[in-house]
Design brief:
The protein is of the alpha/beta class. It has 14 helices and twelve strands.
Amino acid sequence: MSGIKRREFITLFGGAAAAWPLAVHAQQQTTLPQVGILDPGIPQHFGAFRTGMRDLGYMEGKSISYIYRSAAGRAEPISQFASELVVLKPDVIVGASAVPVHALKEATSTIPIVFVLADALTIGVVSNLAHPGGNLTGLSFLNTELSTKRLELLLETLPNIRRIAVLRDLNTPRIWAEATEEASRRLGLSLQLLEVAEPETFESAFEAAVNAHAEALDVLSSAFFNSHKARLVELAAKYRLPTMYEHDDFVRTGGLIAYGPSIPDLFRRAATHVDRILKGAKPGDLPVEQPTKFALSINLKTARTLDLTVPPTLLARADEVIE
């Protein structure tokens, strides 16, 4: 081989060697597993899901990619976003709360769906927790049972109250409010049900509660309420209504009391379902799981602002007390 040809050969071989890893990298980039996310407006909790995925070894842009749609606390765009995600054909879609999960179920019967914060049996997305079948599985929420427990804890906090207002998201199952209504009758309370679907109607609901002489407020579980928790806490303070919420984020924001499962724990556990599906498991073969961690949170600063004395027995049982 002449000197010139030898140099050409080395140049060509070197160029090919340098280009080959880039070509492989580009190919890997286009074949990463894709996870669709339908967020009703609670991005902080989907952050916990992504943390769970990282803990399982999935690095965004390297071994996993995400397609994200957020309704930002509004119900109207959810069906459209569900359809958009299905058209993009991700390997699995993760949705949170009743409305997004129903929208996803209607949009596809083939793409695996992992749900979080959906009371699976109550809203009818599966008929059997151990063997869900179909293309859905995930983490259920026990909202019916929790609705009763929250009211009992509110009455333990304020044993002398007799009139209570209940704030319900119109997009959530009616049975959650029915469980609270039944508990109120058993506990001897007069209940006023306030139903809203838009954040613009929050204040009128609080005004109605005060005008009806409600002595406390119970905010039922809702991803919509979760996405507007700062506004709800602000209105509870403005109208001086002692209020029970669905989880500790509300108490850290300034709410009085909350009881419910650890939401970040549920979202991190959803990552395990996604991991198993990406490795070949069928969603219908994966049992729907229930919450395992629950927390009672109390904000004593808010209690003092409302001139309330929280019973020491309740404080002793609290998992988190904010001074």
